[in-house]
Write a structure and sequence with these properties.
By secondary structure, the chain is α/β, with parallel strands linked by helices. Helix 5 runs antiparallel to helix 9 and helix 7 packs across helix 9. The strands form 2 sheets. Strands 14-13-12-11-7-10-9-8-15 form a 9-stranded mixed β-sheet. A 6-stranded parallel β-sheet has the order 3-2-1-4-5-6, with helices on both faces. It is built from 9 helices and 15 strands.
Length: 330
């Protein structure tokens, strides 16, 4: 925790990923509650380039950054399957951690890291950003007000066009594949909107025979009351990020559900038998909201227990999907 509880949280960054450059580091520079002080990379030239671009220091290496007394927290955008060991090292070094999603690839490892954070009084927050966007709070409000009656079914998709052969997501040993990259979004959306008692019914995973990476899949889940979730993901499709809710009286849908640009004004579509409506919502910056939430959790010492519970349940569901899935190699 910062020495002054009112001071900005001093961030160091472990890794120079393209997403960090494009989206998170500009937010860390601009956020009133954050101060980007250092960045580290295995490539000194890349660290120097990032440091020059964002006005911070270039640390000689990851361990040097973690040893710095001038760093309160680390943002960790390393590849999915390399993340957990460095989250653990950061916590053991006394640093709060904002880590890209998924925190780990399985429930047991996620539970262990969250427990370590609690034991050491440190915040561990997985950067699943979309629940922090105002559009999802608006959708929850509409559902609670009975806009489509009682919820019966939920469907969600996150698909992207084919990636270059050398993309890290084609390497399951490092990048984790489509389940851990895109699949996390519809799974987490189902948890967010249907509740943590969601259970996996069945799953199909499409696997590349050459790389062994999961390239796409479909998941069927359900709640104890029988509401169903149909979750679709992949990296061999047209681009789509959506959520749709079917109720006893109508249907509600939301496009750009997971990755709306900060200036984008989301539109909620509501259809009932004799009624069609479009509601345009305000623009919002979900990544700025995540950084603000993390910084507040660090400064107040109250932590981020609701997000930790969601991350843990998500991780257990991913393990369940892996265990139950029918794999089709192509």
């Amino acid at each position: 925790m910062p020495a002054d509880a009112g001071a900005p949280v001093r961030f160091g960054v472990l890794g120079c990923a393209a997403f960090a450059r494009r989206r998170m580091l500009p937010v860390l520079v601009a956020a009133p509650g954050a101060d980007l002080v250092a960045v580290a990379s295995r490539d000194p030239a890349k660290a120097a380039e990032f440091a020059g671009r964002f006005g911070c220091a270039a640390a000689p290496g990851y361990e040097d950054l973690l040893a710095s007394d001038g760093v309160d927290a680390v943002y960790l955008p390393l590849p999915a399957m390399l993340r957990a060991p460095w989250v653990e090292r950061a916590l053991l070094a006394g640093k709060h951690v904002l880590a890209e999603k998924p925190l780990t690839g399985d429930g047991e490892s996620t539970a262990r890291l969250l427990r370590l954070g609690r034991e050491r009084g440190l915040v561990v927050l997985e950067n699943v950003a979309f629940p922090h966007h105002a559009q999802h709070a608006a959708v929850r409000g509409l559902l609670a007000d009975g806009a489509i009656g009682e919820l019966r079914d939920f469907s969600s998709a996150f698909t992207i066009p084919p990636l270059p052969a050398g993309d890290i997501r084609h390497r399951p040993d490092v990048g984790g594949g489509a389940l851990l990259d895109m699949g996390i979004y519809p799974v987490h959306a189902a948890l967010h909107h249907l509740g943590h008692d969601l259970e996996i019914t069945a799953a199909v995973l499409r696997v590349d025979g050459g790389t062994g990476a999961v390239t796409s899949g479909r998941i069927l889940a359900h709640t104890p009351r029988g509401a169903t979730a149909d979750l679709h993901f992949g990296m061999e499709h047209s681009y789509r990020t959506s959520c749709e809710f079917s109720g006893s009286l109508g249907r509600l849908s939301l496009d750009r559900a997971f990755t709306p640009p900060p200036a984008h004004r989301p539109v909620v579509h509501i259809e009932r038998q004799d009624h069609r409506e479009e509601i345009t919502l305000r623009a919002d910056d979900q990544f700025a909201n995540v950084v603000a939430r993390f910084a507040d959790a660090v400064r107040t010492g109250e932590g981020a227990a609701p997000e930790a519970a969601a991350s843990l349940r998500q991780a257990h569901l991913v393990s369940e999907i892996e265990a139950k899935a029918l794999r089709i190699t192509v």
